[in-house]
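Input.
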Amino acid sequence: MPPDSQACLLKLAPHLVARSRRGIVGTSRYAQRLRDQIRAAAADPEARPVLISGEPGLEKDNIAALIHFGSPARRQLMVRVDGATLRADGGTLFGSASSDGEGSLLDCLQEGALLIDKLDQVSAVLQQQLLELASTGRWRSPGADGSWRQFHGRVFFTAECSLPRFDAACRLIRVPPLRVRRQDLGDWLRYLVRQRARKLGWSPFPDVSDTVVKRLQSYDFPNNLRELDELVYRALQQVRRQGTERTMRAAGGPRLLPDDVFWTPSRGLRLRFDLWRWKPRLRELMRSPRLWNGLLFGVVSWLFVLVNLWLWLGPQDRGQSGALNLFWAWWWPLILLGYPLVGRLWCSFCPFMVWGEIVQRLAGRLGWQPRPWPRGDTDRWAAPALAAGFAAILFWEELWNLEDTAWLSSCLLLLITAGAVVGSLVYEKRFWCRYLCPVGGMNGLFAKLSVLELRAQVGTCSGSCSTYACFKGGPADGEGLATAGCPLGTHPAHLSDNRNCVLCLTCAQACPHRSVQLRLRPPAADLQRDMDPPAGELGLILVLAGGVCLHHWQRLLGWWSLAPDALQSGPLLPRCAFGALALALPSLLFLLGGLLLPAPRQRLLTYALLPLLWAVLLARHLPVGMAEAGRLLPVSAAGLPPAWPAAPLLPLAQWSADPHVVGFCQTGAMLVGAFGSAVLLLRLLQPGLRGRLLGGGLVLTLAVAGRWLVVG
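Output.
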């Protein structure tokens, strides 16, 4: 230290680095490699300059502090200077020409460590002087007469871009962004929560659910650790604002942070049209609880009872049963036609869950309390179970001829209703609908193709709301109505796709800030390269494709000499064997495709084929719908006595499409599906010219094969 040590300390004080803020968190190979590089740089006997590069928000200055305070020179001072604030002539570091460096920052620092932060923002002239300092340790004050002096300390640089001139003079450490080391995100999140919770006086520290970690892993964090730290800060402040701290004070703080307090900006949304801003009165009409409650509990619930009685007590053959006509000729084609328009809307007034809610409310009046909505990654086991359940239904449907047996069709409806009732008794809200209902899983899958979406504005929710009544439920607040909360336990601002939104508008009823929007968008907008669907959803796609193969098994496997005459009659073992083989054909092709494509691209390719699968399913059900749906009245009256007054007129009240018209509509549906899959394939896989040709050929081949299979 020079003679005027007090003046030097005052000069260094604004720039001093007292200690490192934190270590390197995480167990990934990136974190381990970074720790090894820090240890190696700290132990460098030559104390060479270090250049730490990486994206914004990666705490590169903290890495420099880790190296210095882990080195033998740890007792020496370390100063940090922002490169963006340095004068172009270097006077901030090197002093003035008149002083010839006496009392400059470097002269005061002597053998300490100098950190130049944001080297890429330093002027080109000063960069040359810093390069000289890093290469030889020499420096001089501005001006032609300044004498050369020697710096005996160590130099650190940080930069956000490549600086090739410094590469040869420095030891390089490149810090990977947070999106590359997603495996470390959970460790970083919990670490930052502990750090922030300690300042709030919470003990023991709250935990974060795996569901939150998985959701945040799908976000890229452009500002890396800085953005993650800010996200944790906002989350804990919202926990305090919600009153969680007060209610849990006796236990020393909240044990588990709610999932809903972690907000990330939505990806850039283009080509969205807000229907309610266009027609405000439409919003008020659709929010009416009287409309929804009257439809659900006044119409749907009792209509479901009547249909099941009709199936049990009425004629059993589809040619005479109006109930079977409704089930197979009306419901299946209409729900498939509705997916691209209204997504999963059917689930909002599904009779299975209506009776589940009725039983849940009755049990609540008797004192029964279902468990709270489960936290954690339930999809991990529920999605495969859902796919297996749908496969069992398709198998049962074909082998036991449900399409032509009324009481068996009723058994299927009652079995799914029983699952909804049991699920409603075990867990609150619609746990069954979200995770385990086979029909709900199919609806959620094809809802990704819909042109309609219900979303909330993240900025409004994170900045204005502290009740979260949109999915938790609660009393009326301002223009927000009293509700029980989202039946699927999802915040509308956290939705990454339409899979978990049934368009019941509960969130729109409860929201006092008009944050929820009903918007039109491009078809299949949910299918993106960075999407993170549950693993079992891929299995559901294969099961649905297998259902088409199972229904048309004779075209695929009928040539085999061991094949039975029919799946509905004969020895059970051959029927089960060939039915299972037909159902598994798409899965076998998928496994073979895994030998040619890496798993991520194969998954994206499968989702790109989703519009084509929808078209095949629609083409498979169109013949029944177009040939039989218009005969509902005469079929329903087939069992009436001839003396009934209106009986002679009923045969006139029917309509049936010509087979050529049916075939034309089937072909049209296949063309629409093939076009949609071709566009999605280009968007999701972004192939080169060769890949485009191969992908287009694959889509065309599958479309032709699908038409041959379902049209003939």
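Residues 371 and 427 are 5 Å apart (CA to CA).
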